[in-house]
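Supplementary Text 2. Reproducibility record for the structural model of the 164-residue chain.

All settings were left at their defaults, and a single model was retained for analysis rather than an ensemble. We include the record here because the model underlies the residue-level annotations in Supplementary Table 4.
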Amino acid sequence: MSILKIREIQPEDNKQVAKVVRAILVEMGVPKVGTAYEDKALDDMFQTYQNPRMNYFVLENGGKIIGGAGIAPLPGLEETVCELQKMYFLPEARGKGFGMQMMNTCLKYAKSQEFEKCYIETLPYMENARKLYTRSGFKSLEAPMGDTGHYNCTMWMIRDVKVL
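Retained model, structure tokens:
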């Protein structure tokens, strides 16, 4: 029997994480330009998240990465606002409560780094993801914040981190 666990990303996870994220973006029909698909950081997530106030967590099932999510300062608002980044799960991990566990892991990390708010960008047709974000306390915004470069993401949400 496999043991599922959420843990911090390691260098040997890079290829699997990039493959998972890109596979899910293709599955969802997400444009490849102006989204996480083309992020240069995607090919070396471990190194990317070695910067201050950043961390990426993976969901592992018996050595196979089946999901992940990260926290990083939101460009342009680095001191007080973080961004929940690249939260994606393969179909085998969906609908089993792992999203909420990952969300809690990320938000606890954000709070430990003294962020006040957590921001996320998403797409209208990622309905299950938006439901998770809403259940996790995120509220919709009318316009984007910061400078993520993801101009094809047309839905924005935010939540307070101080009240976990």
